Amino acid sequence: MAGRASISPERLWSRLMELGRDGALPGKGVNRQALSAEDILAWRRIIAWGSEAGLKPATDAAGNLFLTLDGKFPHLSPVVAGSHVDSQPTGGLFDGAFGTLAALEAVTAIAEAGLAPERPVTVVAWMNEEGSRFAPGMMGSELFAGKRTMAEVMAVRDAAGVSVAEALKAVHEAFPELERRPLGFPVHGYIEPHIEQADVLERAGAVIGVVSGIQGKKTYEITITGREAHAGTEPMERRQDALQAFARMALHMQQDMAVDDVVKFTIGRLEVEPNAPSVVPARVVFRIDLRHPENGMLDRLGLRIEQIVAEEASPCDFQVRRLVDAPSNGFDEGLQSAIRSSAAEHGYKTLDLLSAAGHDARQMAPLAPSAMIFIPCRGGISHHPDEWAEPAHVAAGATVLLDLLLEQAGLSPKQGDA
Amino acid sequence: MAGRASISPERLWSRLMELGRDGALPGKGVNRQALSAEDILAWRRIIAWGSEAGLKPATDAAGNLFLTLDGKFPHLSPVVAGSHVDSQPTGGLFDGAFGTLAALEAVTAIAEAGLAPERPVTVVAWMNEEGSRFAPGMMGSELFAGKRTMAEVMAVRDAAGVSVAEALKAVHEAFPELERRPLGFPVHGYIEPHIEQADVLERAGAVIGVVSGIQGKKTYEITITGREAHAGTEPMERRQDALQAFARMALHMQQDMAVDDVVKFTIGRLEVEPNAPSVVPARVVFRIDLRHPENGMLDRLGLRIEQIVAEEASPCDFQVRRLVDAPSNGFDEGLQSAIRSSAAEHGYKTLDLLSAAGHDARQMAPLAPSAMIFIPCRGGISHHPDEWAEPAHVAAGATVLLDLLLEQAGLSPKQGDA
C-alpha cells in the first residue's frame, strides 16, 4: 500500500508562510515565545489543519501538543514526528516550524491516501525548545523524557516574572476541549526534520542531511558582584566594577575557547545592575553557551570556563550556576540507513553530518530509536529573520519523512510492524 | 541684624530622613527618579515645609521647583541656593536632598528670625540632575541656563518610552495651584551645598569643602552592530559578535584611560540585543562617562575613546554619539573666601578641593557668582543606599550656607547689597 501517499509541496509551503503570521516581526521573521499569545495562535492554526485531516489533538501536563492519526492497533505505541513552534525573539520562519509542519504534511498525506497504519502516527510540537523566554529550553521534551521534574520546570520565571506554570495554565485554558495525555507515554520511534542552521549541506550541494548525532552542550549563568559607586568621584583603583570584570572574563574565555574549529562559545545574554550611566556597575549576570562534539573536550572547556571566572573576578565576587550539561549523543543506525535509502530513491543527494545545534531529538534518543532529517538553510543563517529554506528542500525533507513514517507505522512491505 | 538667625539641626536632620520615605528602597536608600510619582511626593513635602515658613512655591517650564522668601526690594534679582531631589535608581538619602533641604533650612531660619532681606532668597530643586531615568542629566539647570533647547529636552524618552514632556505634564498637573515663573530669570548669586561623594574631606578630617571648581566630563553612547546567529552552529571565525567587540573595547579603554590617578572612566549602562542565551549578540549599546579636571587631557582621552571604538569594532560596525561635553569650570573667588571666613568663625576645618562629580552649579557659574559647599560623606560612598553624612556635618554645611545667604541677601553689615 505504501507509495500511494504523497505530500503536497504547495500546501506545506503555504502553511509554513501562514504560521509565520503568528508573532510576525515588522518586515520579516517571527517572535513566537513559548506559551505566549502568539504560541496559542499557532496552536489554533495547527489543530485546525490537523482536524481537517482527521487527526486528534491532545496535550499533556508539560504543554506539548500532539496530533494523532489512529492506527489499526491503538494499543501499539505511536510513531512520533515533529519539532517545536516557539521561536527566538528575532527568529525565522523555519526553525521548528519546518519540522512540525513537515510531520503534519506527511501524516496528512497518509490520511488522505486512505491508508490505515498499524500503529498510531503522532505529530508533536514540543513546549519551549528555544529557552529564550523561559530558560533553559527543551522543557517539553525533557519533561516528557523525565529528565527534569515538573516542580523545577513550572517554577521557572520569564523576565517579567511570569512562571511557566502560569503561562501554561493560560495556554491550556485557551483549549479547554483538548484531550489530556499522560506525560511520557511509550514511543515506537521518533523522527525530527529540521533546517541545518549551518551551511555544511549548502556548501556540499546536498539536499538531505543524515544526522549522526548532536554535539554536546553546557550552559552556565555567571553572576559577578561588585560595588556601586559614583562614576565621577570613586577613584579607579578602589572600584569593584562588575562590568569591567565581565569584559576581562569574556575576552579571556574567547581566547581560551579557541581550541579548534568545531568549538562554539557564546555569551548571548547579559544584564547589568543598576545599569545607570553614572554609576559603577554593581552586578552583572550573564549566560554562557558552550558546545563541542567530543565529550572529553567539552568537559575540559567547561572546567576552564569556571577557572577563568575565578581568575578574572577580583576584586568582585562571583557565582557560577551550571544550567545545561548535555553530552553528545548518537542517533539510530537503522533510521539513518532508511533516510539514505529514501533519499536515494528520490534522487536527493545526502550528507552524513553531526548537529551542532541542540534539538528535542536529543531527549527522545534514549527512549526510542530516533533520527533527524536535515535540509539546507540559506547561508547557514538561523535564529534571525533572514533564515530561509528553499521550497524544493522543504518538500524533499517532508518526502523522506513520509517514507520513514510509512515504514515505521507498518505500511511498507519492507519493515511492516518491525 | 545678621547673626540672630540660626538653623535648627534637629529639624533639618529629621526632614532629610522624612524625605527619604519618598521612593524608599526596601532596607535603606531611595529610588526617586526625576518627574516620577515619588518625585511628586517629595515636591509635596517640600512645598508644605516651605509654606510653613512663608515661602512662596513656584515652578517653570523646565520643571524646576522654587520656594522664595520675599525681599524688601522685589525687583532685585534673588539669591538662589539648593540642589536637586531626584536620585539614582539605588541612591542614598543625601545626594541632592542635603543641598535642597539645607537651603530650605537656612531660608526658614532667616524667615523665623523676622529678618527682612533686601533681595529675595530662593530655594531651588533642579529638575533631573541625575539623568538616570532621562539621559543626560542636569536638564533643569541646563534649560534654565539656556544650554539646551526645550524641544530637545522634552523629546527625551525613558526606557518605558515616556517622554520628558509627558512626565513633566503629570508633575505640573499634580500642582495646579503653583505659580509659573519665566524660564531663566536673572540670579544675583548661586550657592549649592552637597555631600562630597568622595572621601577627601573625611581623610583630611575637614568638615567644610571649599569647592574651587568642577572637573570636566564627557559622555558617549556607543552602538556596536554585529549579526545575529545561532550559538550552536555559527562557526566562530564567521561571527560578528557585538558583545565580544564590546569586551575588547571595554578592556582596551580601561587600560588606555589609566593615565593618572584623577581620571575617572566608567561604563555604567549597557544593553544587548536580542539578549537571548543561544543567539550571538547582534547589537550592543553602551554609555561611557569620562571625567578629568584638565581640559586638555579630557579632550585627548575623549579622542582616544573614539579611536579605540574604531580599532576594536571589526568585524562589527559602530556608531559614536557624543552626549555631554562639559569642560572644567571654576567657582567665584569671593564666595570661596566667604565660605572660608564663615567656617573659621564657627570653628569648622576647611579644605579647598575640586569637585569630581558634576553638579547643577556648573550651569549657574556662567550666569552669576556661584559656589559649592561640600560636607564629608562616609567612606566616600555615594549613589548607593549606604550613602551617609554625619548630623554634625549636615548642620555645619547649613550653618555656613546661612551666613552666605545673609551676606548675599543684604543682611550682613560686611557685604550688604554688594
Using only C-alpha atoms, the radius of gyration of chain A works out to: 23 Å
**Largest sheet features of chain A:** 10 strands, mixed
Give the overall average pLDDT of chain A: 94
CATH topology of the largest domain in chain A: Aminopeptidase
Treating each run of at least 4 consecutive H or I residues as one helix, how many helices of chain A?
12
Extended strand count of chain A: 16
Instruction: Compute the separation of the termini of chain A in Å.
Output: 16 Å
Please indicate the percent range of residues of chain A in DSSP E strands (runs of 2 or more). 15-25%
- Multimeric organization: homodimer
Secondary structure class of chain A reads: alpha/beta
Shape of chain A: globular
Tally of individual domains of chain A: 2
Could you give the order of the helices and strands of chain A? HHEEEHEHHHEEHEEEHEEEHEEHEHEH
CATH homologous group name of the largest domain in chain A: Zn peptidases
Low-confidence stretches of chain A: 413-418
What's the CATH class label of the largest domain in chain A?
A: Alpha Beta
Give the largest chain-chain interface (CB within 8 Å): A-B, 68 and 68 residues
User: What helical percentage do the residues of chain A reach?
Assistant: 25-40%
CATH architecture of the largest domain in chain A: 3-Layer(aba) Sandwich
